[in-house]
Amino acid sequence: METSLFTKCLFEFIGTAILILLGDGVVASNILKGSKGYNGGWVVVTMAWGFAVMCGVFIAGPYSGAHLNPAVSIGLALAGAFSWTYVPGYIAAQLLGGFVGAVLVYLFYKDHYDATEDPDLKLATFCTMPAIMNKPRNFFCETVGAFLLVFVLLMLAVRENAPEIGLGTLGAFPVTFLIMAIGMSLGGATGYAINPARDLPPRIAHYLLPIKGKGTSGWGYSWVPVFGPIVGAGVAACIYLCIF
Fold first, then answer.
1. 64-78, 98-112, 159-173, 217-231 — which is least confidently predicted?
2. Residue 203 backbone phi and psi in degrees, to 5
3. Which of 28, 112, 179, 216 shows the greatest Cβ crowding within 10 Å of its Cβ?
4. How far apart are CA 198 and CA 123, in angstroms?
5. What sign results for the dihedral spanned by CA atoms 59, 107, 70, 182?
């Protein structure tokens, strides 16, 4: 049976919420005071983000293709591998899922947020901030990371001879390793959002939630992890179209 747009968007919402719950959750576990996972390190964080993506893809893959990322939806549509009709609904579902996932992380670790004094650490559990603030360079880093993500996804679709991205649950495995590879190799500069839904909705949640001593939400940087991934996805789509 043909999956309705509502069902597709519902699974994009669920998959993205789980992605952010597990992804932001591992960051919170790694840096909030009193956590059993305190100071687990960058490798733990990148591996957990990869597994978070895997869980989201396992759930949403058979129904929506598991984009879980506005940049992916836009990039695939630009490449002609996904219908533009679905893009607005997918993006809305992904952004809402990102917000809900971030709120769940806050509720789960509320006592640890209250016990942590550093407002920058609290912010880091919700969204990305660069290790060294250089916005043009940071934008370039987010663009390159998202380019790799979308271009590899497009090549996976070609290899599977699929008319559009819809690799189902089997697509979770290569995407998991791809996210880990990007994070471990290129994530050190910015924290590698490569996904507007990973960064913007949780940043909004940080702004709205009653977090004790939360400090600024970093709005001056917030455009970088939103537009950088979209540009990277566009570049990937252009190269894909030139090849095929």
1. 159-173
2. -65, -40
3. 179
4. 13
5. negative
Cα(164)–Cα(209) distance, rounded to whole angstroms?
38
pTM of the predicted model as reported, rounded to 2 decimal places:
0.94
Contact present, 128 and 206 (Cβ < 8 Å): no
In sequence order, what are the residues at sequence separation of 6 or more whose Cβ sits closer than 8 angstroms to the Cβ of residue 114? 212
Nearest to 94 by CA among 209, 3, 8, 203: 8
> Computed over its alpha carbons, how large is the radius of gyration of the chain?
17
Q: Supply 35's token pair.
A: 């956590």
Helix residue ranges per DSSP H, 42-134: 42-64, 70-78, 87-108, 110-115, 119-124
Q: Which of 7, 14, 43, 9 is nearest to 184 (CA)?
A: 43
What long-range pairs does 40-48 form, CB within 8 A, spacing at least 24? 42/183, 42/184, 42/187, 42/188, 43/184, 45/183, 46/179, 46/180, 46/183, 46/184, 46/187, 47/180, 48/22, 48/23
Report which residue type is found at 112: H
The Cα-based distances of 52 to 25, 131, 235 in angstroms read: 10, 23, 26
Distance of CA 134 to the CA centre of its chain: 21
Return the closest-CA partner of residue 175 out of 152, 144, 194: 152
Handedness of CA 181, 144, 197, 82 (dihedral sign): negative
- C-alpha–C-alpha distance, residues 187 and 179, integer Å: 10
